[in-house]
Amino acid sequence: DRIIIDVTHDCDLGCRDCNRSCGAGQAPATEGIAPEQVRRFVAESVAAGRRWRRIMLEGGEPTLHPRLEEILDILLRYRREHAPACVIEVCSNGHGERARRVLAGLPPGVAVKDSAKRPVAEQGHLAFNVAPADLPAFAGADFAEGCYIHFIFGLGLTRAGYYPHPVCGGIDRVFGFDVGLKRLPASAAELAGQMRRLCPWCGHFREFRPNGHRTSRWRRNAGGQPPGALSPSWEAAYRAFRSRPPRLTPY
């Protein structure tokens, strides 16, 4: 009953360890989801009788999307006609004049989450770019079980389709596996294959388990991996991305 839509991978900060790879030295990009794709998401939700409890727009920095107002109009109409209890929320870094101007002009009824992030080093960011697959301790791990993120925050949608969470979509756009689901999944079982493919590269899997244990160690970068660390798989993936970004099949 919760979904996060990553509307863009464009960002005006360069945070280290960005879990969408929008930071400096990672894989920032300007592409974003199209309003037509959001209309398709709404149509699928209505056809499936899905009454979302929360729809959050993230990124990247969502206020940089040139058609954000149109996207919000589509979602507000969905809420008005099909899910009156749905919370529609924009998660912004709140950084800079543009973000403040866009947030101030959002339509009535849209909630705002201001993360108040600042450039480069963010307290609480783990070493996202240290892949479990590069560490002997994770040999034989069951990556199909995923981590805590999708249990807490819900499904993800990007311009390439549905994922257990948009962090997974951010991994896919860098590595180029092209495994985004092109239709709304009916059950969590449909996501296991994606997690098996994507979680080996995700620092969140390395730090936290599905039951939420170890979350108290979030700010301590558990496992001794320093902020900004890059394991070999991520170094190679970013190098390849800068040479030729993967082309994922659109949703």
In short:
The chain contains 8 helices and 6 strands; from the N terminus they run βαβαβαβαββαααα. By secondary structure, it is an alpha/beta fold.
Distance between the termini: 20 Å
- Beta strand %: 5-15%
**Tally of helical segments:** 8
Average pLDDT rating: 90
Question: Count the strands?
Answer: 6
For the largest sheet, list the strands in their spatial order. Answer: 4-3-2-1-5-6
Rg estimate, integer Å = 17 Å
Helix amount: 25-40%
Show unreliable segments: 212-222
- Main sheet, how many strands, which sense, barrel? 6 strands, mixed
- Tell me the overall shape: globular
Walk me through the structure:
The protein is α/β, with parallel strands linked by helices. Helix content is 30%, strand content 11%. It is built from eight helices and six strands. The chain has a six-stranded mixed sheet with strand order 4-3-2-1-5-6, with helices on both faces. The chain is globular, with a radius of gyration of 17 Å. The two termini are 20 Å apart.
What structural keywords apply?
alpha/beta, 8 helices, 30% helix, globular, 251 residues, 6-stranded mixed β-sheet
